[in-house]
Write a structure and sequence with these properties.
- The protein is α/β, with parallel strands linked by helices.
- The protein is 52% helix and 16% strand.
- The chain contains 9 helices and 12 strands.
- The strands form 3 sheets. It has a 5-stranded parallel beta sheet with strand order 2-1-3-4-5, with helices on both faces. A 5-stranded mixed beta sheet has the order 7-9-10-12-11, with helices on one face. Strands 6-8 form a two-stranded antiparallel sheet.
């Protein structure tokens, strides 16, 4: 309760009883203001609330109201209804000489904080003091609850604003990183085009594909509604389109994709993209030595797992080893498979070469091992 002397507005047309209330409650630490009618009481309350709303002043502020039922003009229930409509109105203790319980029920439903029966001798004043104290505590608790709820809403708004700002910054970061990586990929492509030695050209082209695979993830995140996941079918479609445009001329014209819209986190999407890039480029170089041929990329859900396959109908195990090969592709596939915690196997029943990866939709628990194999 406030440290200052609380003010009680006593609305009653009985002046003698009002003086008893004034003496009784003043001894108990209250300042009592008397209004002889409902209209006068309403005017005092409106004036006090308006002044408080304008400058926050507590001078003349009314902390609690004691309201009589039977008065000329507006009766207690009519006055109570209008008090409740005043913004910031104080709590009301309804006071009446009537023993009719229906009046009490009506008053409490209308918003009264408490109800008590008065007598003309003033014996009810101690009860009025207790009721006023209870109404003040109830009002204080209500204000505290409203302030807490307002702070919760304000905190939620601040959090939402911070989250929106963070998302905007992440989008901007992904946009800039994607653009930077695309510039690097373009520079590698230019360098590869001007290279005189075939092995240098091949190395630069491979590096360009790896950079482009990472750049595609950042471009996806920049345009996606969800920054926490990448839709693999869309990502792989864009990645393979990049490969068709940039690598090995028309030998990429028969590259196909069948993929379901499976979502995984961006880090693991990068690993999937790099694996696809390595295995597709491997098939381009070795599966069809004398001609172009089909290369199929497929991605399907299998329960809690994802199955990714890269297949060709080429020479298969009859491929001749390239003495210039550094084995970099195999090491990259093994490293990315480990990142995915994936099992990587060659399909022995396939007439050409078919590499199948199986990994969980969600990151697997530590301790699971992976096996990698690539042609």
């Amino acid at each position: 309760m406030n440290q200052r002397t609380p003010t009680l507005l006593y609305i009653d047309d009985d002046g003698a009883l009002a003086r008893l209330v004034d003496r009784g409650l003043t001894r108990r630490g209250y300042r009592v203001v008397h209004a002889a009618s409902g209209e006068e009481g309403l005017e005092r309350i409106r004036r006090a609330c308006a002044q408080s709303n304008i400058d926050g002043s507590i001078d003349g502020f009314i902390d609690v109201v004691a309201l009589d039922q039977y008065m000329p003009g507006l009766d207690g229930l009519e006055t109570l209804e209008q008090i409740m409509a005043i913004p910031g109105s104080p709590p009301v203790v309804f006071v009446t000489a009537s023993q009719d319980s229906s009046i009490a029920v009506t008053a409490l439903k209308a918003g009264a904080a408490d109800y008590l029966v008065k007598d003309v001798s003033g014996d009810f004043i101690p009860l009025l003091h207790v009721a006023a104290e209870g109404a003040l505590r109830q009002a204080e608790l209500q204000r505290a609850r409203e302030e807490a709820e307002a702070e919760i809403h304000a905190s939620r708004d601040r959090y939402a604003a911070l989250a929106a700002e963070r998302e905007m910054l992440l989008r901007e970061v992904n946009h800039r990183v994607g653009n930077s990586l695309q510039i690097i990929a373009s520079l590698l492509h230019l360098q590869a085009s001007s290279a005189a030695q075939d092995e240098v050209k091949a190395a630069l082209t491979n590096a360009m594909g790896r950079v482009a695979a990472v750049a595609q993830v950042h471009r996806r995140l920049y345009t996606s509604q969800d920054l926490k996941s990448v839709v693999l079918n869309q990502y792989l479609d864009s990645l393979l389109e990049d490969l068709r445009r940039s690598a090995e001329g028309n030998r990429m014209s028969r590259l196909t994709l069948k993929a379901e819209p499976i979502e995984i986190d961006p880090d693991r999407a990068v690993a999937v993209g790099i694996i696809v890039n390595e295995l597709v480029m491997n098939a381009v170089k070795y599966a069809y030595p004398d001609r172009a041929g089909p290369i199929h990329v497929e991605l399907h859900g299998h329960g809690e797992d994802v199955l990714l396959s890269i297949a060709d109908n080429g020479v298969g195990d009859n491929v001749k080893a390239d003495p210039r090969s550094t084995g970099m592709g195999q090491r990259i596939v093994a490293a990315m498979a480990s990142k995915l915690d994936a099992v990587v196997e060659r399909d022995p029943a396939h007439s050409g070469t078919r590499i199948v990866l199986k990994f969980a939709r969600m990151p697997a628990a530590p301790g699971r091992t992976s096996t990698a194999a690539a042609s």
